[in-house]
Amino acid sequence: MTEPTDVEFRPLTIPASMDASDADEFREFTRVRNEVYREIAGTDDDALTPEELLPHYQPSPEEIRYVWVAVADGEIVGRVSVDLPLEEGSRAAFWLIELLRAHQGRGIGTAGYRLIEEKAREHGRTVLQSWTQHPDAPGPRLEPPTGFGSIPEDRAARFYLRNGYTLEQIERESALDLEASAPDVARLLAAAEAKATGYRVVQWQLPTPAEHVAAYAWMKSRMSTDTPAGALEFDEEVWDAERVARHDRKTLDGGRTMLVTAAQHVATGELVAFNELVIGHDPAAAASHQEDTLVLREHRGHKLGQLVKCAGLTVWRRDIAPRSPKVITYNAEENRPMLDINEAIGFVPVAYNGAWKKVLE
């Protein structure tokens, strides 16, 4: 494909705050990001304000993030980004390319992708991984080696295939009607409480209370090792009190609210399962998002996943975001234990993402 001559890639200007004199580019960057997602999904479920997004672009000791804006005719038309985790010995790089629909097919993505591989090689990264949504469409389909799910061989899929990627996993996006699901949530919570003898529910809103920091850090670290990943590669993450504090600040500095619901093993006092629910600064207008959920391996089989999900949703709907219309969550298509719980609660599939991987020579 011919190199576009009328497009410039330049590093994104990241302001210290949205009140700073150089914040205009980040504001437009956020608007374009939201518009890209709206074009793909037809909803604003993943929209963020610049204030909510900015904390995630500040320097972090966990990763190096390179971000470029694609500029055509003086306007931002997309973004290119690559994240390089800083865990010791990491081989991984995670990237995205997102363009407004009107500017696709001009070679911008191909040119942007060159920046990604250059940065990956510069930092000695050999495993490149990326996710994108594939709206359902007729025609040929692609299946991952996990054997769970499929996606259409669409424009995005052909881009990955052309650049040497393999489809490794399908991720399901699901949505829950908070109001309609309330009776099922109550019934399932009661069933989980009856089964989970020897455990009790502990809940907090960020920031994480001092007495739970160590346990929360340990459970967060297990997200990188104990969830289904197919042949994708994730570094084992090290979480400590400082990392938990940075995690909490990213949420709170953006004006967002997060509820953590945990299951505590009464005999030992250990936290052994958790679920996170988060929403933006306007709880009446936005979709809520269910983020990490995990039950530590040695405590599975006691309906703790169902317990923390349903206890969280109960408090969320009653006390925190009663006017939020729905909850969005993501799961690997082969993660049947979590999908079983979600489906029983009332989550329904709304989209599927492909997880793609390439190993550089």
Name a few traits of the molecule.
30% helix, 361 residues, twelve-stranded mixed beta sheet, alpha+beta
As a whole number of angstroms, the C-alpha radius of gyration is 21 Å
Roughly what is the average pLDDT, rounded to an integer? 96
Strand order, biggest sheet? 1-2-3-4-5-14-8-13-12-11-10-9
What best-fitting shape do the alpha-carbon axes yield? globular
The helix/strand order is EHHEEEHEEEHEHEHHEEEHEHE
Strand runs, count: 14
Assign a percent range to the helix content. Answer: 25-40%
Question: What can you tell me about this protein's structure?
Answer:
- It is a single chain.
- By secondary structure, the protein is an alpha+beta fold.
- The chain is built from nine helices and 14 strands.
- The protein has helices spanning 24-41, 50-53, 108-122, 155-162, 182-195, 213-222, 241-253, 304-320, 336-345; strands at residues 7-11, 63-72, 75-85, 92-99, 127-133, 141-142, 151-152, 166-177, 199-205, 257-265, 271-279, 288-295, 326-332, 348-359.
- The strands form two sheets. Strands 1-2-3-4-5-14-8-13-12-11-10-9 form a twelve-stranded mixed beta sheet, sandwiched between helices. The chain has a two-stranded antiparallel ribbon with strand order 6-7.
- Strand 3 and strand 4 form a beta hairpin.
- It starts with 6 loop residues before the first strand and ends with a strand.
What's the short story on this structure?
The protein has helices at residues 24-41, 50-53, 108-122, 155-162, 182-195, 213-222, 241-253, 304-320, 336-345; strands spanning 7-11, 63-72, 75-85, 92-99, 127-133, 141-142, 151-152, 166-177, 199-205, 257-265, 271-279, 288-295, 326-332, 348-359.
